[in-house]
Predict the structure.
Amino acid sequence: MARLVLKFGGTSVADLDRIRNVAQHVKREYDAGNEIAVVVSAMSGKTNELVGWAKDASPMHDAREYDAVVSSGEQVTAGLLAIALQNIGIPARSWLGWQIPIHTDDTHGAARIKSIDSDNLNERFKEKQVAVIAGFQGISENGRITTLGRGGSDTSAVAIAAAIGADRCDIYTDVDGVYTTDPRIVKQASRMNKISYEEMLELASLGAKVLQTRSVEMAMNYNVPVMVRSSFDDPSKKLETGTLVCREENIVEQQIVAGIAYSKDESKISIRNVSDVPGIVAGIFGPLADANINVDMIVQNISTDGKFANVTFTTPTSDLPRALETLEAIKDSLGKPEIVSASNVTKISIVGVGMRSHAGVAAKMFKILSDRSINILAITTSEIKLSVLIDAEYTELALRALHSAYGLDAEEA
Amino acid sequence: MARLVLKFGGTSVADLDRIRNVAQHVKREYDAGNEIAVVVSAMSGKTNELVGWAKDASPMHDAREYDAVVSSGEQVTAGLLAIALQNIGIPARSWLGWQIPIHTDDTHGAARIKSIDSDNLNERFKEKQVAVIAGFQGISENGRITTLGRGGSDTSAVAIAAAIGADRCDIYTDVDGVYTTDPRIVKQASRMNKISYEEMLELASLGAKVLQTRSVEMAMNYNVPVMVRSSFDDPSKKLETGTLVCREENIVEQQIVAGIAYSKDESKISIRNVSDVPGIVAGIFGPLADANINVDMIVQNISTDGKFANVTFTTPTSDLPRALETLEAIKDSLGKPEIVSASNVTKISIVGVGMRSHAGVAAKMFKILSDRSINILAITTSEIKLSVLIDAEYTELALRALHSAYGLDAEEA
């Protein structure tokens, strides 16, 4: 017997048929003798509809009322799943954020969980009752409904798993696990059996949209093993597939590089012929930081005579207009440099905890790209990640070459 | 300055445009210096959709989960109206049943309000804040959401008005008041300025679908004046029209007959040639009561030789099949009488507190019908009501004749 949290996203509870399918997944785990808490999102599309209404009522809507409106979506699916479970003989009860309660701060629309009272749930587990919990929501100190922000149901699930000491948190989604890279681009991409929290965090923040970054951080902090699996698999069969996100030491066969991610959402800004005087870099990035613009990679080149510099950096494409505006405003103080931007760039990142202990991982990456005449526009590194910026047109070529070179290609079937 | 409860039904909050219109009604009353609590229903059609889903999830759905699902409809409109009010500069906050809290018993799906804690609302009135309250819902002793049953938002509104000591409860609906009879049938029907609780109760239970019976009972018990008015009137103008439901003594110009209602939802069952022995009536109506079948009017005729009786009674048409089944099962014990039923009957009722003190009201009714050769099939009376059963084809003729005879016809414009 284990204690499990099962989380089902919006596409998994999109209509009554899908909700009945979820009930079968829950039944399989329940019949195996487990104690089960289920966390559900709103039916897919429902949250967007509610958000649209709130915006229609007022573009500057009060976040507290927004939360009251939007949280109703998860309330509906929690009640419906409880009914569907009872209908197949599984004792179940729905739980809203305020009923458990899940205490959060009062940052409405993006609240953070402060504590979860597990007494109510533990009591029901003793009675063999399944708890069906509305994800994405909690209650603030002054009794108002809060929501955790988009994708918050993953965070709800992991937080509840931590609070009730669950053996595992299963995130059911529309893919059957985490892949070594995007299978739409690299046919040989394969599902990982296990991945460490650290690697998942790097991949999640790089845009592999399987898990919310916050939920992975929380899973790591509380050491909650998280299984990513598909709700579209036959619910009557024991699910063998999926990717387990867990501690590094629980992964026996460690790859040097676990996965390769890419992001097309970055833009490049080059500032050419800035006067190279002390403080000039601060003069550029200070105002950008003040304007809350995210800057990722930075490259600085000094002209041969040492008098001028070229500064290149990347920023999310969504921040690009504001970044250019900010730079235009300080252009004079920088000596009126030429400012050019480009959005046809891709950031490619290799991620793996093995990189800590293995030298030559970076050199190999540079050689592979160079062999294919792919120019590296910028580089950033972390302990377990190496990212390069390249022209977007080389994205597929680079991904395939790197995937193969780091030994990630699946065996041909 | 007054303290008001304004209640808006489903058609009044059917979409964002209608919700903005409601906000203007609230603004008018707020700007006049009143303290305002608003009670809202779900957008029209929304509750039916949620009920449909619950039924789809399981025909035998758990009433507790049904309540969790269905109560979300009012939650959405409460939040949206609060946003719409803030958008036009009115401080507002939404309140769900559990937040106030509105304590109910645990009869899920048809809960009764036990008490309402008005402290939170009173606190906000001091801050000049409008309270937007989700109607139709409360919280049970063990922390579960309850709903009050269909039309429960009227009851919520009146109960809140009683709890906060409101000067009046305004029920905004899609008609502009209570009429002396159905204006679709009688062109001369006129809107009443005032009607007593007792008369409204009789009319409400007779199918004048303006107000829920329970809400009128509660208004009477707590002496809450209730104004029925239209949300379709121009919200920018002070509303002069509407019908005030209040104590009898507050109505100066009392009509003998206040209104005339009719119901086509009744069926007639005749049992012919029952042996007229003691206990035979109990032998008929006992089993019907055991089967939870409502019986309204009863007429018994004895045959000339005193040996047989004919028993005729009415029942809601929805109960007719079960009533016939029940009678079939006891037919032998009644001496195998002939049992015939008819649904082409109408119950016409004249209602008025003046009937208590004025003789001849009934005689006048019988004469008017007799003059038009309308046969009376059955009669029932209460202190302030007189109902007759007639053939359905005479409905319009009878209504118009009675409406005119009791002086209710509006002056021609």
Remarks:
- Chain A touches chain B through 40 residues (CB under 8 Å).
- The first helix of chain A runs from residue 16 to 31.
- Chain A is about 35% helix and 25% strand.
